[in-house]
């Protein structure tokens, strides 16, 4: 929410008093900042409702770059660090961290904060707070700062994460919170950290701190809390965003040579995520007849997760095989309808639809083959009975030749045994 143009309260904004190209008063901001310079009077000010309201106004004002630069000019981060020991109210802490978070949307402020090791460490310790509103603002501060940070600054961030035990605090939140906003913000924070800290240069440190046995368990718990327990309070965009970033996070966690060793006991957690995602998109694609261009990437991500974690050995049909095959059948029907000049799908571009269909069908075929390669004998029989004659078409679409051979050999052995049984 933007403040009103009379944000300077009872003081009129006069010529020479405005901050940059905004309509905000320098005097209003300076008078507010001066209150932080005196501990004795600040204790009393913190009890006043008007002081909290003025801070909220400043919080809104920091959405403007010129205001942030003005605050930087007056070294506001150092001033807040000086005053922090006096601040006890959780609401004031939330507002101040929110102000700093807004400031960190500007590169100059984000870099300045990163040079204040003691203050930033103090702030990061609030990840262990019991106040959800404070944690939300802190996680947003981290997200904004990482987004703007150069590689050298990312190194400092991950060293700070290790120093304060950030991953343990984050995973605790994901496993134990039922606050929707906090969970979603935490998932976004986890995804941001994976995106910016899991780099070639920092790979070893990222692995050592974030790739732990509780990571996928925490991710799965938070995922289910939002997509199952609180599904009715989420709009479609929110749900689909959670689907995508949860798969992205999982890909980052399993992208190491030792990932299987770390996560071999978390296969069920990963399957819970995959099953919910595929059930959702099966309904969207097969029943609602809606094209989603993210589907190919979602399927390809799942192929990688299934391959690395070797989930098929403990996986029943209903986790993702059935959903995958139903989407595969629907794609086959699209191909037939397109050849006849019609379509029930919401896409007027036939070439785009055809290209999407080809890519998605190949990805689904690969995922189905990943399942057939490692599933139990009982599930193999069920799978082959279900796909029937479509098996040969799938075989032609799988580009991974080693996978094709492994599945072909297994299916051939199965069919040979089946014939021997029939001849007995």
UniProtKB/TrEMBL annotation:
Keywords: Nucleus. It is found in: Nucleus. One of its GO terms (cellular component) is nucleoplasm. PANTHER family: PROTEIN SAAL1, SERUM AMYLOID A. Belongs to the SAAL1 family. This is Protein SAAL1. It comes from Euphydryas editha (Edith's checkerspot).
